[in-house]
Design goal:
Blueprint (H helix, E strand, L loop, with lengths): L1 H9 L1 H6 L12 H12 L6 H6 L5 H42 L2 H4 L4 H26 L4 H19 L5 H27 L4 H32 L8 H20 L15 H15 L8 H9 L2 H16 L6 H6 L5 H7 L1 H21 L3 H20 L5 H32 L4 H21 L13 H8 L1
Keywords: Membrane, Transmembrane, Transmembrane helix, Transport
Protein name: Major facilitator superfamily (MFS) profile domain-containing protein
Membrane topology: Multi-pass membrane protein
């Protein structure tokens, strides 16, 4: 994998930009190239340094360079961030799966203590997101994000050795603190590289990672429970944390060499590549990105009504998607065995990935997010209502309830990347304001996760009428 990424970084795109090798596939439309040339010739929009670095580039070379830059970003930024985000969510979801594997009984925890352990992660997550993104706006993502990942991988591994509820509370709080920089940091980083017509799809691809992690977490938990439960005197749920933490540490080490910083200071890009990356963003946003102090950026975001509108929207969506924190327990109410329940959690999330990416692609092409958000949330509402109405224990009705979970998961999760992408497009600059806005919107979703951390108590099982009624509302 490293060798393949290295070859993409050091040969293909750079040769394409310098005109030494043709790029396969269609290049950008000539209108885009003409627009870039017009921006390049405008003295009030482009600095003299940027103009000098791209001197001699004609329309065809600009078109090939654009395609090369996008291919490079998709390989080194999106693919790496997706892998890191999948690890992020897998480590977080280990607690939910561990409950099915016997964590509560082994640690002698009641439902309230388990709910507190889940809630503490989100409290730390809320507190750290805005300060983290403010720091990242002037920091180095290629160092900051992998370092945070390396540390949370170590904490996740440590969770395997807790003996008391108090120890679990401590490691979950620390895990939330260390995971907080990642989601908002990645969303901010991709908004610093991609144009507005590219952000929706890339955000959806990035946010499909949690759904894939949720899908395969159940399968991995099933494999661990079935094969190494009890090995070396450790219960299966402890091995789940060890495996998740070890994989996270390995991926973090790779990320140090793969993630970029920003278009103007990424070290493994040539000057022409950095200049072209900046030029395409100037053409998209109408002006060069300018810097303000962190405090000014924070004030600008706090005073923007648009930021709070998106935050409110995302808060409500997060309440609707809170089912994912309890999804294995909900599937368990269908009265299948423990092992069957674990693998049955996967298909709804795989379906959700397809729906999320498809709707984001459609929203980008039609340049309209609102109707796509309405459509996907309506799909989720239908799913919740079907689950509530089909309460018979007949085998046919049980499978109908399971089918409704596909609509619940897919509909609710498909809307999330569109709201976050909409935020990125609406608040393009300055960088400090955009970083704060993304963090505020994502924090509102985390607050909703805290509010719903005990939304599915055991006493409401198996119908969960109150829980799903709130999700539907």
């Amino acid at each position: 994998m490293l060798q393949k990424l290295y070859s993409v970084v050091t040969t293909g795109p750079r040769r394409a930009i310098r005109g030494r090798r043709m790029v396969r596939g269609p290049v950008e439309k000539s209108a885009s190239s003409e627009g870039l040339l017009a921006v390049l010739d405008a003295p009030d929009r482009v600095s003299e340094q940027l103009r000098n670095e791209l001197a001699g580039f004609d329309q065809e070379e600009l078109a090939k360079g654009i395609r090369a830059i996008k291919r490079l970003l998709d390989c080194c930024l999106i693919a790496m961030a997706w892998t890191m985000f999948a690890c992020n969510y897998f480590d977080r979801s280990c607690l939910t799966l561990s409950e099915l594997m016997g964590l509560r009984s082994d640690l002698s925890m009641n439902s309230n203590e388990y709910g507190l352990a889940m809630m503490l992660l989100f409290i730390a997550y809320v507190l750290a997101q805005v300060p983290s993104n403010l720091y990242l706006a002037k920091g180095r993502p290629s160092v900051y994000l992998p370092t945070a990942m390396l540390l949370w991988g170590c904490v996740c591994t440590t969770t395997a050795f807790v003996k008391t509820p108090g120890a679990l509370y401590a490691v979950r709080s620390l895990l939330g603190l260390l995971e907080a920089p990642f989601c908002v940091g990645c969303l901010f980083l991709i908004s610093s590289w991609y144009t507005r017509t590219e952000l929706g799809l890339r955000s959806a691809i990035l946010l499909s990672a949690p759904m894939m992690a949720n899908a395969f977490a159940g399968v991995i938990a099933f494999g661990i429970h079935d094969s190494i439960d009890g090995a070396c005197g450790l219960e299966g749920w402890r091995w789940l944390f060890i495996v998740g933490g070890a994989v996270t540490i390995i991926i973090a080490c790779i990320a140090f060499f793969t993630l970029p910083d920003y278009p103007h200071n990424t070290r493994w890009l040539y000057e022409e590549e950095r200049a072209l990356a900046q030029l395409r963003l100037i053409a998209d946003r109408g002006a060069s990105e300018y810097d303000v102090s962190r405090i000014v950026g924070l004030k600008m975001a706090l005073n923007s009504w648009q930021v709070w509108m998106f935050a409110g929207m995302y808060f409500l969506l997060a309440i609707g998607t809170s089912l994912h924190n309890f999804f294995p327990s909900v599937v368990q109410t269908l009265d299948f065995s423990r092992t069957t329940t674990l693998w049955m959690t996967a298909p709804p999330y795989l379906f959700a990935v397809v729906v999320a990416i498809s709707t984001a692609l459609s929203a980008d092409r039609h340049r309209n997010a609102s109707f796509h958000i309405i459509g996907t949330t309506a799909l989720a509402i239908v799913g919740y209502l079907l689950f509530l109405l089909e309460q018979s224990t007949d085998r046919g009705d049980v499978w109908a309830r399971y089918a409704s979970t596909f609509l619940m998961i897919a509909g609710a999760h498909a809307a999330n990347p569109m709201v976050l992408g909409w935020t990125q497009k609406t608040v393009p600059q300055p960088r400090e304001m955009r970083a704060t806005a993304i963090a505020i919107v994502n924090t509102s979703g985390t607050i909703a996760q805290i509010a719903t951390s005990e939304l599915y108590p055991k006493r409401w099982a198996p119908r969960y009428i109150q829980s799903m009624s709130l999700n539907t509302a």
